[in-house]
Structure prediction request, 203 residues.
Amino acid sequence: MLDRGMLLPVMEMFYSIQGEGFNTGKAAFFIRIGGCDVGCHWCDVKEAWDASLHPLTTVDEIVSQVLQYPAQSVVITGGEPLMYNLDILCRKLKDNQIRIFLETSGTYPLSGSFDWICLSPKSQQNPRKDMLQLADELKVIVYDEDDFRWAEQNVSLVKEKCLLYLQPEWSRYEKILPSIVDFILNNPRWMFSLQSHKFMNIP
Prediction:
């Protein structure tokens, strides 16, 4: 059931406003799937890493929760959601005319069908080249100066129309902000992404 995507280890589900990237400001239902093997030291949801801590939830139950809210958009995030087969979940959401946004590190092959793919590559585990080509949005988290070089490494691997965002790692927001501003002013294809939901005190 798990390998077929009929059950998924769901850490949490909630209705909120997208706080970062291209879809900032849009109401959406969030599905956070447990399990991640990338291991970012600055990750703010480390509790999502161990999938065994989170209850296996049927796709039908997930969709039922989504339909209780008025937004027509769902964000599937993690953890790393592509560790699992998302075909059935996406098909059932699409059957209900729900738009689906994916947040992924790009380290696993794509399953499911999405209206928007936000790929946030991590230097400790390179994203797949085929996933970089599918990304609508490349969002690089900036922790220190090395991340600017990492960001530029990935630009040549995404499609021409892919949107490029730099986002400060939350705990170093004030320290790294001036460097991001300078980088974008000198490299104007890049844009700034901010975790605005944290300023608004919402999930």
Q: What stands out?
A: The helical segments are 59-66, 87-94, 129-134, 146-155, 173-186, 196-199.
